[in-house]
Design goal:
With about 400 residues, the chain is of the alpha/beta class. Helices cover about 30% and strands about 20% of the residues. The protein has twelve helices and 19 strands. The protein has a six-stranded parallel β-sheet, with helices on both faces. It has a six-stranded parallel β-sheet with strand order 11-10-9-17-18-19, sandwiched between helices. α7 (about 220-230) packs across α8 (about 245-255) and α9 (about 300-310) packs parallel to α10. It is elongated. The N and C termini lie close together (about 10 Å). The relative contact order is 0.12. The mean pLDDT is about 95.
């Protein structure tokens, strides 16, 4: 990573303003999943062990410029204290005299967490005055919030104009090394697996990956737009009518590289909101009944995809193979998760691009059996699209 990193900074006695991603789920005022907080620990420990006075800032949820008590970052303090074995201070704002006084009171190795940045719209608007106020709190700046690195906000981009030394934390470095490294110099065969609901969200990824990969496996809702482009019946399955011509272009461009399902699991009843699905049956990809929903890849597709995955040396996965939120239609997604775990055990590099794929890997119980699970859905997508992330730049 050709960037200044936290290890390049002289931290002793310095006020270190650090952007973290503590956008964690809260239930009844408590943190329900501390994965994102844990992800920041290596950088937090490095800074405090080297005598930095650490000021942490983050957003949580979408309070849209209002003080929403249910979106306070205060519950994160309890988790930090337990994980670090030391007291983290908290201040009920992110700029202003009370915050400046709290920062002034910090000693070497102390930690202060600021209140939710998005309690003001100036954060998401990247307001220069707000960014300058944040910058006043630190002598140096560290960004370890990969999940928001694709957003040009005051705490990720604006603040860097007012602080001389801005560096990447360990999580940002790791994410960029894995995702960026995979695209820059992948061991071959290189396979991408793309799923999820829509082609529209993955067009740029497909275009960026096609020249680099040996195969792109396509599943999930986006597969049916490709089927339609091939003239197949897709029944009541998810379909983007306005993307059929684009799917034709991608199929012509990709040729043998694009691998589609050969069979599907269909049902005549499906209620996503109620998480209910009728009896499932396996049909060939070109035999989807006109009045039924295709909701998952079938066993022949699973086996076909598994063989391609097992031969690969580098694999990137983004997007489920079916409606994985419902147990009966999650089998294809879990099978891919397990195939990736097996490929990793056999020496392949496997990178999971955040969002639903990260959730699926977690549900399948193989989070620790793949090379890297990204903490940023949108950020990982944009990096795979070949874009420069403002927070990294």
């Amino acid at each position: 990573m050709n960037k200044l990193t936290v290890e390049d900074l002289d931290l002793k006695g310095k006020r270190v303003l650090m952007r973290v991603d503590f956008n964690v789920p809260l239930e009844q005022g408590r943190v329900a999943n501390d994965k994102r907080i844990r992800a920041a620990l290596p950088t937090i420990n490095y800074i405090t062990n080297n005598g930095g006075k650490l000021i942490l800032m983050s957003h949580l949820g979408r309070p849209k410029g209002k003080r929403v008590p249910e979106m306070s970052l205060q519950p994160c303090v309890t988790v930090l204290n337990a994980l670090l074995g030391k007291k983290t201070r908290f201040v009920d704002d992110c700029i202003g005299p009370a915050v400046e006084n709290a920062v002034e009171a910090l000693g070497e190795g102390d930690i202060l967490l600021l209140e939710n940045l998005r309690y003001t719209n100036q954060e998401t608007e990247n307001d220069p005055e707000f960014a300058a106020q944040l910058a006043k709190l630190g002598d140096v700046y560290v960004n370890d919030a990969f999940g928001t690195a694709h957003r040009a906000h005051a705490s990720t981009e604006g603040v860097t104009h007012y602080i001389d030394q801005c560096a990447a934390g360990y999580l940002l470095m790791k994410e960029h090394d894995y995702l960026g490294g995979v695209l820059a110099d992948p061991a071959k065969p290189f396979v991408a697996i793309l799923g999820g609901a829509k082609i529209s969200g993955k067009i740029d990824i497909i275009s960026n990956l096609l020249p680099r990969v040996d195969n792109i496996i396509i599943g999930g809702g986006m597969a049916y737009t490709f089927f339609k482009a091939q003239g197949k019946e897709v029944g009541k399955s998810l379909l983007e009518e306005d993307k059929i011509d684009l799917a034709k272009e991608l199929l012509a461009q990709g040729g043998q590289k694009i691998i589609l399902p050969v069979d599907c699991m269909v049902s005549n009843t499906f209620d996503f909101a109620g998480r209910q699905v009728g009896a499932l049956k396996e049909v060939a990809a070109d035999e989807i009944p006109a009045n039924e929903f295709s909701l998952d890849i079938g066993p022949k597709s699973i086996e076909k995809f598994r063989l391609i995955i097992s031969a690969a040396k580098t694999i990137v996965w983004n997007g489920p193979m079916g409606v994985f939120e419902i147990e009966d239609t999650a089998r294809g997604t879990y099978a891919i998760a397990n195939a990736l775990a097996q490929a990793t055990a056999n020496g392949a590099t496997t990178v999971i691009g955040g969002g639903d794929s990260a959730s699926a890997i977690h549900k399948a119980g193989v989070t620790d059996k793949v090379s890297h699970v990204s903490t940023g859905g949108g950020a990982s997508l944009e990096l795979m699209e070949g874009k420069v992330l403002p927070g990294v730049a």
